[in-house]
From TrEMBL:
SMART domains: HTH_GNTR. The keyword Transcription applies. The keyword Transcription applies. It comes from Paractinoplanes tereljensis. It holds the Pfam family GntR. GO terms for molecular function: DNA binding; DNA-binding transcription factor activity. Residues 8-76 form the HTH gntR-type domain. This is HTH gntR-type domain-containing protein. Coiled coil: none annotated. Keywords: DNA-binding, Transcription, Transcription regulation. InterPro entries: Bact_HTH_transcr_reg, Tscrpt_reg_HTH_GntR, WH-like_DNA-bd_sf, WH_DNA-bd_sf. Signal peptide: none annotated.
Length: 77
């Protein structure tokens, strides 16, 4: 699934997988995405990589982070 030797940085690959789950409806609006810890375990990446992937999702307008609560899927625009 994630290719450390691939053309895209690992954090972008992780973000793309999560974005695909959002687009498929596996992750639904107003519900949280997996925690950084869960992403680290699932993808076998460093915490900083997981954090960067979530940042990419925020920049794409797919999620919003509420301090102390988590990161949630935004409704489609």
């Amino acid at each position: 699934m994630i290719d450390p030797e691939g053309m895209l940085p690992v954090y972008v690959q992780v973000a793309d997988v999560i974005a695909a789950r959002i687009e498929r409806g596996d992750l639904v609006p107003n519900r949280p995405i997996p925690s950084e810890t869960a992403l680290v375990q699932e993808f076998g990446v460093a915490r900083g990589t997981a954090r960067h992937a979530v940042e990419v999702l925020r920049e794409r307008g797919l999620v919003a982070t509420i301090p102390g609560r988590g990161t949630f899927v935004l409704p489609p625009k």
